[in-house]
Amino acid sequence: SQGPHLLAPTGSDLDCNGRLGAVLAGYHYDLNLLTVHGRSRFPGLFVWLRDGRRVAVRIPAGCLLMQAGKQLEWLTGGHIMAGMHEVVVTEATLAAVEAARAAGRSTWRISSTVFTHCASDVTLQPLGPYAAREGAREAYPPVKAGEQVQRELEAICLRKATASCNASAAAAPAAASKLESSSGLGASNVTSSINSGNNSSSATGVAIGSR
Questions:
Q1: How far apart are the first and last CA of the chain?
Q2: How far is CA 55 from CA 52, 58, 71, 134, 208, in A?
Q3: Phi, psi at residue 141, to the nearest 5°?
Q4: Measured between alpha carbons, how far is residue 155 from residues 79, 104, 162, 194 in Å?
């Protein structure tokens, strides 16, 4: 109820950005509750599993992709993690671009994404049995959802904090250490992501049939 949900279609012109290895969306996690994606016409989305594997995402036709965000991680005390993902131009992307050109279709990669949030005045904290997880209450102390969002935006310098962005970024190594220990990812990569202003999370994505 009254959550600050955001529909954010984004696009990349693959005529200009269709170079093998080009990064269309940098390595990041989503700060919200759940992110809902429609199926893209061009592949390139990757997620990281808890064992550190980088996996290409394939969404069946007629399905949506659901990605867990930081708020869901908070509510489950880390049982569901807000994982890392990125969008990169691959050989499969380039093959899809050539097929689109041959068919006279657009070569824009469009992602229509709904970012759903908890209402800003709701308290985020581990719920039900998740509160009993060892260390959950300490790792995820009570915080208003609106404040959690503002902290995330300040950490990546998308919102001006009381202190400077440099001071906000000083907390990045600690955040990186936490992400590294929970996801098996290298701290240098996580810190780079936080400091560079990439703010989006997906634990493992799950394709669900649309009705």
A1: 23
A2: 9, 9, 23, 29, 18
A3: -70, 160
A4: 24, 43, 11, 7
96 Cβ contact partners less than 8 Å away, ≥ 6 residues apart: 41, 42, 43
Place of tokens 């992602």: 111
Q: What CA–CA distance (Å, rounded) separates 40 from 10?
A: 11
Cα Rg of the chain (Å, integer): 18
pLDDT by position in tens, the chain (length 211): 667 888 888 899 999 999 999 999 999 999 999 999 888 899 999 999 989 999 999 999 999 999 999 999 999 999 999 989 999 999 999 999 999 999 999 999 998 899 999 999 999 999 999 999 999 999 999 999 999 999 999 988 887 765 545 554 554 444 443 433 333 333 323 322 333 333 333 332 333 333 2
- 46 vs 66: CA distance, rounded Å: 14
What is d(CA 109, CA 93) in angstroms, rounded to the nearest whole number?
10
User: What residue type is 9 in one-letter code?
Assistant: P
The DSSP code sequence of 119-152 is -TTSEE---GGGGGSTTHHHHS--EEHHHHHHHH
Cα distance between residue 168 and residue 194, in whole Å: 10
Going by the DSSP 8-state scheme, the letter that residue 179 receives in this structure is: H
